[in-house]
Amino acid sequence: MTVQQDPRLGAFAADHLAIQNFYARQMHCLDEGRVDDWAATFTPDGTFAANAHPEPYTGRPAIAEGARAAHRALREAGVRRRHWLGMLAVEPRADGSVFARSYAQILEIPSGGPARLLLSTTCEDVLVRDGGSWLVRDRQVRRDDLT
After folding, report:
1. Helix, strand or coil for residue 59?
2. Could you give the strand order of the β-sheet that contains 57-58, starting from the edge strand earlier in sequence?
3. 70-87: pLDDT as tens digits
């Protein structure tokens, strides 16, 4: 018996792998405090919204400033954070964008102390192609501990 493989699977697998790589690079930027590089992974008019924030950040400058303030506060407190994304599911859309949903866990590491799980969230993104990579057009982060 011969199994026929859908020819679209190769393109889907390549996109899925590229999106995983995109997220790894994006989270490295954030965790290393390279907030301008991190903000550049959003479209110029991109949105970052979270149920823990009163208002979404819209546009790269606002997204960068929000991340910069958070990173500054962590640095002053002597704390590092690591974002771990997993369980990534991607759904191509007819307009060429991709809906990506993942679980994001945030580890907090105080200077000289043990790492601990700080937060568990879901992250829902609309990604758009940017040459050979991706950009976030819209991000919705929902902390599991908030309703």
Report:
1. coil
2. 57-58, 42-50, 133-143, 116-130, 98-110, 79-92
3. 999 999 999 999 999 999
d(CA 11, CA 4): 16
The reported pTM is 0.91
Whole-angstrom distance, CA of residue 10 vs CA of residue 19? 14
Q: List, for residues 36-52, the tens digit of each pLDDT value.
A: 999 999 999 999 999 99
How far apart are alpha carbons 12 and 14 in whole angstroms?
5
Q: CA 94, CA 32: separation in Å to the nearest integer?
A: 35
Q: What gap in Å lies between CA 58 and CA 132, rounded to an integer?
A: 24
